[in-house]
Each structure stands twice: as structure tokens, then as C-alpha cells.
Amino acid sequence: MNERDDVIPADGAAEGATEEAPEGAEQAGENRQNDQADGETGGELLSDGELNEMIEHICNSKAEEFRMLGYEHVTGREVWDCVSDKYEKKGYPPLHQIVNDILSLKSTQFMNWMTMSIYRSAQS
After folding, report:
1. DSSP 24-81
2. Which DSSP category does 104 fall into?
3. Is residue 7 part of a domain?
4. Distances (CA, A) of 107 to 2, 12, 70, 83, 91
5. Spatial separation of the C-alpha atoms in residues 8 and 12, rounded to whole Å
6. Which of 20, 71, 96, 114 is placed for a possible disulfide with 66 were both Cys, Cβ 3.0 to 4.6 Å?
7. Is the dihedral of CA 71, 123, 80, 103 positive or negative?
8. Tell me, what's the pLDDT at 123?
9. Is 97 within a domain?
10. What is the pTM of this model?
11. What whole-number distance in Å separates Cα of residue 110 and Cα of residue 25?
């Protein structure tokens, strides 16, 4: 796995996000390096705050998708908690992998995670 994250052009930044940035999204932004990708020209680097907003927007979008499928009470925070749970042991991957993990999250995976997290909190 490559040590650096891919760079996202600033013109792709999300606007109008309303929920607070998911906990841990700051770490994902901090773990990236500001080197430009090989062969990429132009484009500005996003600040950590802008990356957090973008990750938050993607999580909110996935939560909205789940709500359209009938899972009415899903939040962007819960989506981020589900996706970032697997980063606890290995650390945060490159940004493109985080985005892929969020966008490819299936409702069954999410519901399995929710069930397990409820069991874990009941045992504590």
C-alpha cells in the first residue's frame, strides 16, 4: 500500500453540510500527505477542514440513501462510525479508500455493524 493519499482538487468541495464532522474524520485528513499525485497537474490541495467537510458530506449522502431504502433513523455520524470502525487496528488508509469504503457500504453491512455495536454497548 502506498504511504501517501491521493489529492482531491478544491473545486470538488462539498457545500452546505449541516451535521458536525464525524469523529475520526479529522484523523483521516491529518494522515494524508500534501504531495501531488504522480502525473497530476494543477488543482489546489484541500485543507484538513475541507477534507472533513467532504467526508461528512459523503457520509450524509450515504445516510440519505439508506433512509430512501427505509432505514429512517440513519445519520451520517453512524455511517462514519461504521466505516471507521475497521480503521481502529490498522490506521486510516488513503483518502480514495475511505471514500470507496463509504460509497460501497451496503445496508446489510451497516445493519450488522449496528447490531454488533448494540451488543457491545449492552455488555459494557
Report:
1. THHHHHHTS--PPPTT--S-PPPPHHHHHHHHHHHHHHHHHHHHHTT-TT--HHHHHH
2. T
3. no
4. 29, 26, 10, 12, 24
5. 7
6. 71
7. negative
8. 87
9. yes
10. 0.67
11. 18
- If phi over 0 gives left and psi between -120 and 50 gives alpha, with beta otherwise, what is residue 14? beta
Does residue 108 lie in a domain region?
yes
> How far is 73 from 50, CA to CA, in rounded Å?
26
CA distances from 8 to 4, 34, 84, 122, 124 (A): 13, 10, 20, 40, 40
As for how many domains the chain has, the answer is 1
CB 98 within 8 A of CB 24: no
Percent of the chain residues past pLDDT 70, beyond the cut:
65
Q: Which domain holds residue 19?
A: 13-33+40-123
Mean pLDDT of 93-111: 96
- Distance, in Å, from the CA atom of 54 to the CA atom of 38, rounded to the nearest integer, reads 23
Average pLDDT over residues 92-101: 94
Q: Is residue 61 part of a domain?
A: yes
The pLDDT tens digits for 37-75 are 433 445 678 898 999 999 999 999 999 999 999 999 999
